[in-house]
Specification:
Elements: H1 7-10, H2 14-35, H3 37-46, H4 67-72, E1 86-91, E2 101-105, H5 106-122, E3 130-133, H6 141-153, E4 156-159, H7 165-174, E5 179-182, H8 184-197, E6 207-211, H9 217-227, E7 230-236, E8 243-248, E9 255-257, E10 262-267, E11 281-287, E12 298-304, E13 306-307, E14 319-320, E15 325-326, E16 331-333, E17 336-338, H10 340-349, E18 356-363, E19 366-374, H11 377-380, H12 384-402, E20 407-411, E21 426-428
Parallel strand pairs: 3-4, 3-5, 5-6, 6-7, 18-21, 19-20
Antiparallel strand pairs: 1-2, 7-8, 8-9, 9-14, 10-11, 11-12, 12-15, 13-14, 16-17, 18-19
Helix pairs in contact: 2-3, 5-6, 8-9, 9-10, 10-12
The chain binds 5'-O-[hydroxy(phenylacetyl)phosphoryl]adenosine.
Length: 432
């Protein structure tokens, strides 16, 4: 049976939802105008004032915010309230340049945990569940985001944080965890470890809530099989709270955006023109009621599609498809746009687990693409001829998907480092 955390809003009439969004947007624009001089200056430069904004139909009049703005305004320039009202910060895991630091008031944390509580109940969770959170706790939003939503639902929450796989499995078995929250790459690794330890029959998991990185439908299928669960996608970013900006329901066909808190738009990343629903483009979000770090028309860089159609779960929130990659993670190889997710889809389709690395280089002024893939133990023990046949087949399938040649190197099982958080799949030597 479908469960909801806040059915009155999750299943609200679309016209009612639009009215709520419009009222909140007008209030939010005034809030930012009065409290965030950085954004007010951007509005003034565009010749727009809060009087011009009467509802969501006026959103397009407002200026965008980009990562570059966040860098420029670092650390306090986009804070939306006095520092005494801020009770928490989180920060991105970026390894280069300035990190993004987001500020939260008590009300912001309350709103955020409503969002993750909705996600947990959409995955079938209720107060009888034992939720094992193995997203990192600390500056990363994953751990505390799902932790607080799990508290709100009333689940017994295991605040494991990431890493220490042996201990994760011990708690999972001894305490009978039923819902697992972690990155999909770590879920795949846990699946491998459970198989190796021969403890599959001791696991009581029924669902997993996986996000923070791109993962394909093929990877979903593998994780569902190896853990014996239903795997739900969850999306979010630090700039907009963290996990729970959108979440999947039992239909597993896109993530419902929490539209009473966030308005989504799709734009052409080059021209910044707003595209009609159903178009592929860059996802842009406006936070409607966040006080500590309000984001108006924030360009996520995630490439995605929005679709609003009747969902069998009863929720009326618009859905976003799986992000197809990031416009800034997109590799341009010999002029061709390549998303790592396309490579992953081919590998999983051909029966390889998602342990791979993509190495891009430039040799004699020409781009090269190499995909290192771990062999299955069965293939590893086979003869060299078979390995070379498999390599040839993968080269053909990758060419069909990407339109360019990728060298394929099959490497020994377990030779590619496993990740406990977000997996590092691409090494672009052209940038080193
Ligand atoms: O990754 C928040 C999060 C934590 C989401 C736990 C889900 C679960 P950041 O570290 O700021 O925040 O990274 C945000 O990660 O712009 C996307 O590119 C990517 N991302 C997040 N969720 C998904 C997903 C967290 N479900 C960036 N599928 C975003 C694909 C995702 N990419």
């Amino acid at each position: 049976m479908t469960k909801y955390f806040q059915p009155e809003i999750e299943c609200a009439d679309p016209a009612e939802l639009k009215k709520i969004q419009s009222e909140k947007l007008v209030k939010q624009v005034w809030h930012v105008w009065n409290n965030v001089p950085y954004y007010r200056a951007k509005m003034e430069a565009k010749g727009v004032t809060p009087e011009d904004i009467h509802g969501v139909e006026d959103l397009h009049k407002l200026p965008f915010l980009s990562k570059a703005d966040l860098k420029e305004a670092y650390p306090y320039g986009l804070m939306g309230c006095p520092r005494k009202d801020v009770v928490r910060i989180h920060s991105t895991s970026g390894t280069t340049g300035k990190r993004v630091i987001a500020f939260y008031t008590k009300e912001d944390l309350d709103m955020w945990s409503d969002c993750t509580a909705r996600a947990i109940m959409a995955a079938g969770g209720d107060e009888n569940d034992v939720v094992q959170v193995c997203y990192g706790y600390g500056l990363f939003t994953g751990g505390s985001g799902l932790n607080d939503g799990s508290h709100k639902v009333g689940c017994m929450t295991l605040p494991m944080s990431s890493g220490n796989t042996e201990r994760q499995l011990q708690f999972m078995v001894d305490l009978g965890a039923t819902i697992l929250c972690c990155t999909p790459s770590y879920a795949a690794y846990l699946g491998e470890s459970i198989k190796e330890a021969g403890i599959r029959d001791k696991i009581q998991l029924k669902a997993g809530i996986f996000g923070a990185e791109a993962w394909s439908e093929e990877m979903r299928r593998d994780i569902q099989n190896s853990l014996g669960i239903k795997a739900y996608d969850i999306y979010g970013l630090t700039e907009l709270t963290g996990p729970g900006v959108s979440f999947e329901c039992e239909e597993q066909s896109g993530m419902h955006i929490n539209e009473d808190h966030f308005v989504a738009e799709i734009i052409d990343p080059e021209t910044e023109e707003v595209l009609p629903e159903g178009s592929v483009g860059e996802l842009v979000f406006t936070s409607l009621d966040k006080i500590g770090f309000p984001m108006i028309r924030y360009r996520t860089r995630d490439i995605c599609v929005l679709h609003r159609e009747k969902c069998s779960c009863g929720r009326t929130f618009i859905k976003m498809g799986k992000p197809m990659g990031r416009s800034d993670d997109m590799l341009i190889i010999k002029g061709v746009n390549v998303f790592p997710s396309q490579i992953e889809a081919v590998l999983l389709e051909e029966g390889f687990p998602a342990n791979y690395q993509i190495i891009v280089d430039r040799v004699n002024n020409s781009d090269t693409l190499e995909v290192q893939v771990e062999m299955t133990p069965e293939l590893f023990s086979d003869n060299l001829g078979k390995i070379s046949d498999v390599e040839k087949q993968l080269i053909g399938s990758l060419k069909a998907m990407l339109g360019i040649y990728a060298k394929v190197r099959l490497v020994a099982p377990k030779s590619i480092a496993r990740s406990e958080g977000k997996a590092v799949r691409v090494i672009d030597k052209r940038k080193i």
